[in-house]
Write a structure and sequence with these properties.
Strand order of the largest sheet: 6-7-8-9-10-11
Number of strands: 11
Distance between the termini: 13 Å
Largest sheet: 6 strands, antiparallel
Strand content: over 45%
Structural class: mainly beta
Length: 151
């Protein structure tokens, strides 16, 4: 939820968000983290724990890639647009203009595979995030499939 706005050091409007999580179906929501988002004419940045990440670049062009860690000291993290301006449906709700971003595509290893993707909808923001971490040992797959969706 957006809880505040302010101007960053470059004079751009920043939106501060707080995320809460519900640890059980019957429990209340507890504060989890805070981050802020800044958008200018060429990119959208997300800052969490003083780590700046480039989440989107503009204009969105299919198969365009960029370094999400261009403004921090972490190793290069290539992201790319898989689809742009596409319709997408979640739980019966149709979004008419979405961006499909490949965040991580490390599937060449035969033992450990990691894949992550995000979808953004016009006028909504992030509507879905998927993360796969699969390990294969002795012919058996195990791991994690984590999906976060708008409600």
């Amino acid at each position: 939820m957006c809880v505040d706005t302010f101007h960053d050091l470059e004079g751009r409007i920043a939106y501060r968000f707080e995320r809460s999580i519900q640890r059980s179906d019957t429990g209340g929501f507890d504060f989890d983290l805070s981050f802020y988002v800044v958008t200018d004419g060429v990119r959208t940045e997300r800052v969490e724990d003083n780590l700046r990440e480039v989440v989107l670049v503009y204009p969105p062009i299919r198969e365009q890639d960029w370094d999400a860690n261009a403004f921090n000291s972490l190793p290069e993290a290539e992201r790319s647009y898989e689809r742009t301006h596409a319709t997408y449906e979640i739980n019966g709700r149709l979004f008419d203009s979405t961006l499909h971003v490949i965040v991580q595509n490390d599937t060449d290893n035969f033992i450990v595979k990691r894949f992550s993707e995000e979808r953004y909808a016009k006028y909504e923001g992030l509507i879905e995030r998927r993360y796969y971490h699969i390990e294969t040992q002795f012919g058996v797959d195990s791991g994690l499939l984590w999906i976060q969706r708008i409600r």
